[in-house]
Specification:
Length: about 160
């Protein structure tokens, strides 16, 4: 019986831990400087809790922005919850780390992308080199003509 180190799984766990640490610091001290986050997540994932109207509007994937207005950020070992404003309608979201597809801070050109097992098998030959931050979904974000590219940590280099 051959045993191997699952570097991909370990890297995903480390990247999710990084997100938890960043969000914990923001919950304690607020967002410093120009930092802000685009977080894309699978709305169908186990543990995700969003309003019914958001689930209908975004049946598979949703991108939220934490920038100018967010409230009640609560960070746990499994995920986080936050209240965001959608067109003057505050909504509470519960997002497990396992549901996150991308986490981007365009102010410092930093981004993480998590691939599902299906994507990893389908895209084994493709390498992710960069990720352009998605358009914001929450309406409390100021418009900007700038578009920032963010470096992405890719697990491709750890594959057999």
């Amino acid at each position: 019986m051959t045993r191997e180190i699952d570097y991909g799984r370990l890297m995903h766990r480390a990247m999710r831990s990084l997100i938890r640490d960043v969000l914990s610091e923001v919950a304690e001290r607020g967002l410093p400087g120009q930092h802000h986050f685009f977080i894309t997540f699978d709305t169908r994932a186990e543990g995700v809790e969003i309003a019914d109207w958001l689930q209908e509007r975004y049946p598979e994937e949703m991108t939220v922005v934490m920038q100018h207005w967010f409230d009640d950020l609560d960070v746990t070992d499994e995920g986080f919850s936050v209240t965001l404003n959608f067109g003057d309608a505050p909504e509470r979201l519960v997002i497990p780390y396992d549901a996150i597809a991308t986490f981007v801070d365009p102010s410092v050109e930093f981004g993480l992308r998590f691939e599902s097992q299906d994507e990893e098998e389908d895209d084994e030959e493709d390498e992710v080199e960069e990720f352009v931050a998605p358009a914001p979904m929450a309406e409390d974000v100021e418009e900007s003509d700038e578009q920032h590219d963010a470096e992405v940590v890719s697990l491709d280099s750890f594959r057999k």
